[in-house]
Amino acid sequence: MKHFDTVIIGAGPGGYEAAIELGKAGVKTLLIDKTKERIGGTCLNEGCISTKNYLESAGYMAKASYFQECGLDMSIRGFDLQRLREKTIALKNELRSGVVWQLDGAKVEMMYGTASFVDAHTLDVSGESVSFDTCIIATGAKVRETPALPLDGKKIVSSNEMFELEVLPKSIAIVGGGAIGCEFATFFNAFGVEVTLIARGPQLLSGEDEDISKTLLRAFKKSGINVMTSSSVQKAEVTQQEVTLTVEGEAVEEIKCELVLCAIGRDPYTQLLSLQNAQVECDRRGFVVVNDAFQTSQKHIYAIGDCIDTPAYAHTAYTEAQIAAGNVVSGSANSNTHVNPSTIFTHPQIASCGIKEKEAQEQGRAVEIKKAFFKVNAKSKILGDDSGFAKVIVCAQSGVILGASIIGVEATEIIHELLVAVEKELLYTDLKEMIHAHPSVSEIVRYL
Ligand SMILES: Cc1cc2nc3c(=O)[nH]c(=O)nc-3n(C[C@H](O)[C@H](O)[C@H](O)COP(=O)(O)OP(=O)(O)OC[C@H]3O[C@@H](n4cnc5c(N)ncnc54)[C@H](O)[C@@H]3O)c2cc1C
What domains are defined for the chain? Predict the structure, then answer.
């Protein structure tokens, strides 16, 4: 049986980042995933990279009319989804090679198969045994399913199958008002697909500030998306031509569409691991239970990324990987003290960090809200989209910036300045006094 200092299960952003860190530190490291194509995990294969590449084309489509007004003599004769699909596959392959190159450079060994624990120091990988001193579980999350919408991979699909579509449907119903549902609504709407977005809660993006969600809702409605909030799908009837959804909201309605995307959430992917054999604890939702240093109930087994109950972002997985790998190497118990940004690539984009306005109210904190609209920002107008606003939440006593939310053009880029402000506890006056280049979208801060 082969023995390693550290074995990592799952080659997504969490797993490969930890493996590269450990390999570079001279730790004899094995990284396991089901197949070579899984290197990069959900993020690379059916998550961040694919969605953002699709959305970039949608963004150009949305901006086209503005640049036509600016004199650009172009006509859009159509959109070939098959070509976008092929370009995205090429991009993923290129990025995967980059990860493999880094893993090779760090002398990380790879093994392909499904890993499960035999005991607290041994794994079975599709019939082969490996033993380890320490292990990092980075198995991510998988699509959540519901009996009301049985996935068939053809008419009722999850986000995984979206990137296999070769032609656009005429109409789509997207079930789920979270980031994934809203991003796909943006994509299909930009290309003229009739979109119905069905959200269970009273607002889209329940984790974001209420006025951000309301602004997105207005923007979606203005661009022709049929948004149904406080609604849930009771059943789906599939025929050769279409799907009929029975949706219960204020009334019971029938929605007919060519395709249904079920985007009701993702669950930790821990079922295949036989965690009980290693006495590693899970909570009732299936998340691996960890302490602040990412150690499970077995101190030599760590867990990071989407399989633990922290924000489900690739950037969060990267940070947790670096901290957990550092703890493995040094035997320390460092925790993640960084502020996590949330980024949603809808049109308009949304980004936030730190405390939300409602949270501050619930905690009874005395805060001041500083808000500026992109209507006053020259660069956003030059970019063809001056919708939305930025706001910061400032402690009324100390003047420290506690949180920030943005909805508008380039929100996912300009959030980083506010992230520094929140993480480093800068004062509102520090931020205001800084010189911001003109004309830039970041200049919105001058107006806060
Ligand atoms: C549609 C979509 C869009 C997204 N967009 C963004 C975005 O824009 N920005 C962002 O930050 N995040 C985004 N995310 C979330 C992001 O993809 C995840 O947070 C990130 O991939 C989590 O990384 P991870 O390493 O924890 O797990 P994963 O990336 O899920 O990787 C886990 C790996 O473990 C493997 N595995 C599981 N079980 C086993 C086993 N028993 N044996 C062997 N291998 C196993 C899986 O095959 C998988 O490759 C998006 C997700 C989706 C679905």
Answer: 2-143+267-330 (3.50.50.60), 156-264 (3.50.50.60), 348-447 (3.30.390.30)
Residue 114 CB–ligand 1 contact under 6 Å: yes
Question: 10 Å Cβ neighbour count for 170?
Answer: 12
Among 155, 190, 195, 152, which Cα is nearest to 176's? 195
Alpha-carbon span 349 to 406, nearest angstrom: 8
* 43 CA closest ligand 1 atom index: 17
Whether ligand 1 lies within 6 angstroms of the CB of 10 is answered as yes
Q: Any bridge partners for residue 253, and if so which?
A: 247
100 CA distance to ligand 1 middle (Å): 17
Residue 344, C-beta contacts closer than 8 angstroms, at least 6 positions apart: 179, 182, 183, 205, 208, 350, 351, 412
Residues 82-113: pLDDT tens digits?
Answer: 999 999 999 999 999 999 999 999 999 999 99
Q: Provide the 8-state DSSP code for 378.
A: H
- Asked whether the predicted pLDDT for residue 63 surpasses 90, the reply is no
Give, in degrees to the nearest 5, the angle at Cα 446 between 442 and 447: 110
Asked whether the predicted pLDDT for residue 77 surpasses 90, the reply is no
Ligand 1 and 268: CB distance under 6 A: no
Transcribe 252-287 into DSSP letters. EEEEEESEEEE-S-EEE--GGG-GGGGT--B-TTSP
Question: Is there an atom of ligand 1 within 6 Å of 42 CB?
Answer: yes
DSSP H or E run through 360: helix 357-362
52 C-beta closer than 6 A to ligand 1: yes
Cα distance between residue 134 and residue 360, in whole Å: 41
* Model pTM score: 0.97
CA angle 258, 189, 176 (to 5 degrees): 70
Which residues make beta-bridge pairs with 266? Answer: 143
Verify whether residue 121 is a known catalytic residue: no
- Nearest ligand 1 atom to alpha carbon 13: 25
CA 36 vs CA 41, 97, 99, 110: distances in Å: 10, 11, 11, 9
Contact between 348 and 219 under an 8 Å Cβ cutoff? The reply is: yes
Q: Whose CA is nearest to atom 39 of ligand 1?
A: 139
CB 226, CB 172: distance < 8 Å = no
Looking at residue 289, what DSSP letter applies? P
